[in-house]
Amino acid sequence: MQCHADNTQAGDGPEAEQDEAPLLAQQPSSRRGLCSARCGLALVLHVSLFVAYALRVSLSIAIVAMTNSSHPHGWSGSTSHSSYPGFAQDAPAYNWSAETQGIILSSFFYGYSLTQVLGGYCSGLFGGKPVLGSGLLLSSVLILLTPRAAELGVSFLIGLQVLLGLAEGVVFPAQYTLWAKWAPPLERSRLMNIADAGSTFGTFIALLVAGIICQSLGWPFVFYIFGGVGCAWCLCWFLLVYEDPAHHPWISAREQEYIMASLAHQGSSHGCSLPLVAMAKSLPLWAITIACFCTDWLFYMLLTSMPTFLSNVLHFDLRESGLLSSLPYVGNGLGHILAGLLADFLLARRVLGTAAIRKLFSALGMLLPATFLVAVPYVGCSSTVVVVLLTLALTIISMTGAGININHIDIAPRYAGFLLGITNTFGIVAGIIAPTAVGLLISQDLQTGWRNTFFVSAALNLFGLIFYIAFGSGTIQDWAREDTAVQ
Q1: With the C-alpha atoms ordered 323, 325, 326, 327, is the resulting torsion angle positive or negative?
Q2: How does pLDDT run across 221-254, given as a tens digit for each residue?
Q3: Can you tell me the distance from the alpha carbon of 368 to that of 340, in angstroms, rounded to the nearest whole number?
Q4: What is the pLDDT of residues 450-460, one digit of tens each?
Q5: Residue 394: what pLDDT?
Q6: In DSSP terms, which residues pair with 79 in a beta bridge?
Q7: Parallel/antiparallel/unpaired status of strands 78-79 and 93-94
Q8: CA distance 124 to 133
Q9: What values do phi and psi take at 78, rounded to 5?
Q10: Which of 308, 187, 345, 189 lies closest to 258, judged by CA?
Q11: What is the pLDDT of residue 383?
């Protein structure tokens, strides 16, 4: 397994070549695969993100069973038994309107957006393990309290969802802080993408399992089972995860030396002060941020609007729309893993440098989905082709997992969690705006509105890609080096 500095891009200057040469010279022959501590961390993080996203989407499916369909316009209140066909009859049902349900489900994101940057900052100060573990444990406990909150009233449930968002907002930034200490540069793509795939698989499985639980046991058990599993997994998290290789009691001396030597050039975690002025002036950071905003716009637009498009334009029934809308989750998860493996293969063979790899996979993950969207209005009435194009768009966008999504660690490993919090916040804003924009565009004319929706999303992606290719980087920035004075 090769060891590699952050910059392998040709033409980055003699200083970069000097930083890179000693690490490239190290060629550990031992490939321990799943037995290595770093691969074990990838699997543990995969399960942790699986659990986190299962907790996050549990209400999305359970709310169907929680709602009394015979009273669609009421604000609150409950009946003694669910009247929704196909669901267990001994669980309470609530008279929530569609508007009320929308407010309940969206309240999560208000909390989620507030702790992204804070989670990255705290994980840099206190470590990724305690921050991620605490956020996941609190999320699990809050999920257990969901049935009681619903019983107390809508306002309590909305407040609980905001708290759930606050708790889960620290998970992804804390994960990046851990990887900055564990992932050798030549293995970042596959390790981080294996972990990230847990979020899409967790969403897909949770949507399937939650429906079965609602039908067989009643909707409260969705929260009791998911919350219980989450609490149990948190125990495993605190027992199995260590902050860095130096503190891991079972890691082999060879693996520990390999990881620490490959990351020695990047410095330790940040302190209380941050180079905020330098960050604000950093074009490589802006390149990641803008590209993430544009990519998340397209991703959330498709994710939230695809069921509506399949139903209103292609005239699929609800069951068909649900099944077809779930397919991209599987493709996206598998795409993450394959993209990570391929990116690290190209880096290990020194086919391309770090910056070139990040830009290549970002281009594939942004340009191809944009092309598919532009093609949708021109394929006529072939619903099969449209479904294939939209599914491919949501699947191939996972290629950015080996591009912009992990470029934070390339340019500033000491601040990776904090930077991820910044870019994630912009992505969440895109996720809030995009569905609203879709509603405005399709409100006048359905066909024209959807065509304009796809064109706008494709144009944004193209702009973000051009900006990233122009200003993106694969080297550690001067302001991110440990010996640089904090501004």
Answers
A1: positive
A2: 999 999 999 999 999 999 999 999 999 998 999 9
A3: 18
A4: 889 999 999 99
A5: 85
A6: 93
A7: antiparallel
A8: 14
A9: -145, 160
A10: 187
A11: 77
